[in-house]
Amino acid sequence: MQANLIIDSITRHIQLSATEQEHFLSLLKPKTFKRKQLLLQEGQVCKQSTFVIKGCLRGFTVDHNGLEHVLSFAPVGWWIADMYSLLAQKPGILNIETQDETDVLLLSKTDQEKLYLDIPQFERFFRVITENSLVSAQQRLMDSLSLTAEERYHNFCRRYPTLIYTLPKKQIASYIGVTPEFFSRMQHKLVMKDKK
């Protein structure tokens, strides 16, 4: 199951022989994290990419007032890392935490670079992943500047359809950039609109 999920994710972008798949899988480290466990903390250097097999991860920052700002979620089948820290190998600003008990596959930066030499197609795969991450971050920035809270919520629902009913409302509120109170009122209004 674990192997199938990650291989399916990769073969959407590149083709691998059975030997190449085996070699790639041999570099991954499976790990289980408890609920609310930090995989990465602000100020640490990100040394690996994480692929989610079961559960969900959340990427967030904490401002000087202690408020959390959710930047991303990684449900099953998604990759997550502090991209700046991973690429620059400098201390990052992202915290990555589990939502519940979560099974992941870890790929170290060292092994990722080894993959580029051993199986050059992986350079394309990780370029696509990095480009998608950049496009997503830019889109989030543009959305926060130009869309209403309701439109940002609809975008969240499109991006994370499996998470709408499983995440705490305060985390969804943080992701779309509103207070939990505003989010509750907005959701109530949307439900009433749907009933008409």
Report on the architecture of this protein.
This is Crp/Fnr family transcriptional regulator. The structure is a single chain. With 196 residues, the chain is α+β, with helices and mostly antiparallel strands. It has 2 domains: 2-146, Jelly Rolls (Sandwich); 148-196. It has 8 helices and 8 strands, in the order ααββββββαββααααα. It is globular. The N and C termini lie far apart (44 Å).
User: Globular, elongated, flat, extended or rod-shaped: what is the shape?
Assistant: globular
CATH level 3 topology of the largest domain: Jelly Rolls
CATH class of the largest domain: Mainly Beta
What is the share of helical residues? 40-55%
Alpha-carbon Rg, integer: 18 Å
Q: Largest beta sheet, briefly?
A: 4 strands, antiparallel
Return the CATH architecture of the largest domain.
Answer: Sandwich
Strand line-up across the major sheet: 1-8-3-6
Number of strands: 8
CATH H level, superfamily name of the largest domain: Jelly Rolls
Number of domains: 2
Strand content: 15-25%
- With helices defined by DSSP (H or I, 4 residues minimum), what is the helix count? 8
Distance between the termini: 44 Å
Query: What ranges have pLDDT less than 50 throughout 5 or more consecutive residues?
Result: none
Look at the helices and sheets and give the structural class: alpha+beta
Mean pLDDT: 92
* H and E order: HHEEEEEEHEEHHHHH
